[in-house]
Design a protein that fits this description.
Layout lengths: L11 E10 L6 E12 L3 E3 L2 H13 L8 E3 H6 L10
Parallel strand pairs: 2-4
Antiparallel strand pairs: 1-2, 2-3
């Protein structure tokens, strides 16, 4: 897979620890082991599709029980909010 920034061919799949601001804008969380791409020229970055999935999960799922540091896999398993008026 070529790098989306510089078109280098020497990229490979990796993971990255990232910080995200929750949708309410009041708190940041650390998400560990987020799937990423590692490029020797550009560094390690998260693809836009992965970033969008994380944003949707943080908005539509109950992450309060996960604390302020949790893994990407824990986020993917978080229960969906049943009544979004209560969020």
């Amino acid at each position: 897979m070529p790098c989306v920034w510089c078109d280098a061919e020497a990229t490979h799949e990796s993971v990255k620890d990232c910080y995200w601001i929750l949708p309410d804008g009041k708190k940041a969380v650390q998400i560990t082991e987020v799937p990423a791409i590692e490029c020797p020229a550009c560094g390690t970055y998260v693809l836009e599709a992965t970033s969008q999935l994380i944003e949707e999960k943080l908005y539509w799922h109950d992450v309060a029980a996960l604390g302020s540091v949790f893994s990407y896999s824990a986020l993917m398993k978080a229960p969906r909010v049943q009544n979004w008026f209560l969020k």
